Amino acid sequence: MQLCMQYSLFGSILTVGAMIGAITSGPIADYIGRKGAMRFSSTFCAAGWLAIYFAKGALALDIGRLATGYGMGALSFVVPVFIAEIAPTNLRGTLTTVTQLMVATGVSVAFIIGTVLRWRVLALTGLIPCLILHVGLFLIPESPRWLAKRGRENEFETTLQKLRGRAADISFEAIEIKDYIETLERLPKAKLLDLFQRRNLHSVLIGVGLMVLQQFGGINAVCFYASSIFEVAGFSPSVGTIIYAILQVVFVVLNTTIIDKVGRKPLLLVSASGLVIACLITGLSFYLKVHELALKSAPMLAVTGILVRLQVFSNDITLFIGTFSAGMGPIPWVIISEIFPLNIKGVAGSLATLVNWFCAWAVSFTFNFLMSWSSYGTFILYAAINAMTIAFVALLVPETKGRTLEQIQAAIR
Q1: Which residue in 89, 231, 236, 86 sits closest to 162, CA to CA?
Q2: Which of 309, 282, 273 shows the shortest CA–CA distance to 377?
Q3: Among 293, 310, 354, 358, which has the minimal tally of Cβ within 10 Å of its Cβ?
């Protein structure tokens, strides 16, 4: 039990740092800008990786994971918000989903090279994306909506024109953004309690609800302990993890090509349905193994359960939906970047991101205990939560495809 506790604490400490990052990311992004917040956050990531590389004991490793988690938690909110604020309406979903594609790619690369590199060298590779982000931030503009909110009129129009192209007519979009911000400026500065006022409650419920359901569906446990799951199921951990990593990227790529065509809500519904099936199949695999039934087929069922992919044909469009990566992974982040009014976006976004990382911590911390209690029961529990997701999305989540951020706010009030 003590070993299980230590393993769970170390495995989940990254999410503790992410929770701290989530709390501070919104106010920081509102005060120093989206670019400033990204630069600040990536500095913490770099410091964390260096602390891990030079670690001489457990304390330094914990501090490194805490710092890296802080940067990850802050970036997980700021980056989708920045992309949503600079993207044209018809590409907003695709471009925001690219964030999750990069996350999936990074995780997958780490999974794969982690099978051949020593952990200290692996920590050094974490500095590469931090450096790329720092350099890249000098080459991109600030969010025009943030500039308008700060009263930097000339920079706002110049930036918006640069983003839309020299030949583009930005007059209508600029007026719409300014009118919306002027309306927001007449409202008092947002506080935490303001999130629970009637005019904001719907968007907060949607954003926070999706974050809770995304994590309690069990994906973080699968991600953190993928190799352990395969080993318990009797399948090669290295082979299973590499397959998992590669397919994760493939299906996020497919998601980015269809999200602005199909819409957010249909993808969420199909993805959640796929997660229910995946969890049930994985639970069946562990049930067969525990009761020594069909031992030869059980390992493959575990792989199928985690990697299960659904293929749907509609209007000559082939739509591949893979459990988490195709919907419940990226789309909640797309929606929280769209759903909150600009005046509460910092506070509400921090709350949603905090809830997400707290749930991630809870899932990663309890997973080992749940597996000790019942391996198949654990995945049946996750299946039940994913079934709740289907009902939540069907009843409460609006479709935001093809709408400006200002139109979305008008629709949900």
Answers
A1: 86
A2: 282
A3: 293
pLDDT at 239 over 80: no
135's enclosing H/E stretch is helix 127-136
Q: Which amino acid is at 60?
A: A
Per-residue model confidence as pLDDT tens digits over 103-150: 777 877 877 787 788 889 989 999 999 999 999 999 999 999 889 888
C-alpha 206/C-alpha 349 separation (Å) is 12
Q: Which two tokens stand for residue 74?
A: 């802050």
Phi, psi of 114 (to 5 degrees): -65, -15
What CA–CA distance (Å, rounded) separates 263 from 398?
Answer: 10
- By residue count, the chain amounts to 413
3-state SS class at 401: coil
- Here the tokens at position 177 are 């953004």
Domain locations along the chain: 2-140+187-412
pLDDT category at 317 given cuts 50, 70, 90 is very low
With contact defined as beta carbons under 8 Å apart, do 84 and 338 qualify? yes
Residue 305: exposure state from Cβ atoms within 10 A (0-12, 13-18, ≥19): buried
What's the alpha-carbon Rg for the chain, to the nearest Å? 21
Q: Cα(226)–Cα(125) distance, rounded to whole angstroms?
A: 21
Q: Which of 2-6, 42-46, 67-71 has the lowest mean pLDDT?
A: 2-6
Q: At what angle do helices 405-412 and 171-185 cross, to 10 degrees?
A: 50
Q: Which of 102-106, 226-230, 266-270, 338-342 has the lowest mean pLDDT?
A: 226-230
Count CB-CB contacts under 10 A for residue 197. Answer: 11
